[in-house]
Amino acid sequence: MAITHLRHPVPAVCVTFRQPNAAAAASFRRPPHSQLPPPSSLKANNNKAHNRKWAVKLSLVGQSSPPKSSEEVEVEKLVEFLYDDLPHLFDDRGIDTTAYDDRVIFRDPITKHDSLSGYLFNIALLKNLFRPQFQLHWVKQTGSYEITTRWTMVMTFVIVPWKPELVFTGTSVMGINPENGKFCSHVDFWDSIKKNEYFSFEGLWDVFKQLRIYKTPDLESPKYQILKRAANYEVRQYDPFIVAETNGDKLSGSKGFNNVAGYIFGKNSTAEKIPMTTPVFTQAMDDELSKVSIQIVLPLDKEINSLPNPNEEEIKLRKVEGGIAAVVKFSGKPTEEIVGEKEKELRSHIIRDGLKPKMGCLLARYNDPGRTQSFIMFAKVVTSCTLIRMRLNDAF
């Protein structure tokens, strides 16, 4: 535990910041304002390295009056305030600075500031260099003078020619000064690293890794939101999309590709040529990865009832309802052996983190199945909740 004694006289308060417990950190989405605990199946194991906690204790001297009670501070109103205020973190409106102490403490794995001006400087720097897109998932009270938020931030590094996209997900623990009911600290914890204390070389390396050039074809793809970016996988919430599919032979195979490709090239009831999209999916429905279909994603602006009928009986049109999936990226020719290894690795990672995978997986190839480029393979993940296809309860 690191202890910092501030040398200048300020009103007395002692606030402890800690990494959120595993259950809170694993809860990616929940209905707004919910205070219910997440399902027990989301709790991570007790691996000491994985659940490592750290604290920064601020001992402030010169007490002039006793601190207010948590009821007087009205933490619930601050929760409501953050739901409204934090989505404006990087837009033209910005946050309401009157809710923060002048000496607000900010920490993330590679940045620290000890004043409101430094806090605002950090926000402005990120805004100018990275054009952040910030998504707030939930806000809840986690202590008498403590509020925790979960978020996703996608940033584009605009000053380099290839403009890499950096993704961070995690939680922020925000401390409240009992003297005045204002936020006196903001400590970020990233899902992608274990060492979140400042200064984290692991965190710096995580930033550098995302600066590499990683391209996929500039074609329309299913829409998704990243809920969690861990060290070895992502958790994504996919929007619905439509596929043309037929039977395949194996997860890494291409049998049936010419048939489904023929459908979009005009072999349909109206001879309509449909724009190409990415990726090409092969989906295994069983644990042995033996029962396989091959699928081409159709343009997102199409409705299934407006699409022409396939000329061939073995081609089917189907709406995929979307939902939550765990994803791992890899490159190279996806042989059956490599795909099998990646599937096992992904399944192992998500089980280790307290998530329960469904049977089967999908391999997504971002060019035709006979070529070698970048791929994404993902296994459906579920909690103990009842769900359909990839869909999950919002408490995930």
UniProtKB/TrEMBL annotation:
UniProt record similarity statement: Belongs to the HEBP family.
One Pfam family named in its UniProt record: SOUL
Protein name from the UniProt record: SOUL heme-binding family protein
Region feature (Disordered): 26-47
InterPro entries documented for this protein: DUF2358, NTF2-like_dom_sf, Reg_factor_effector_dom_sf, SOUL_heme-bd
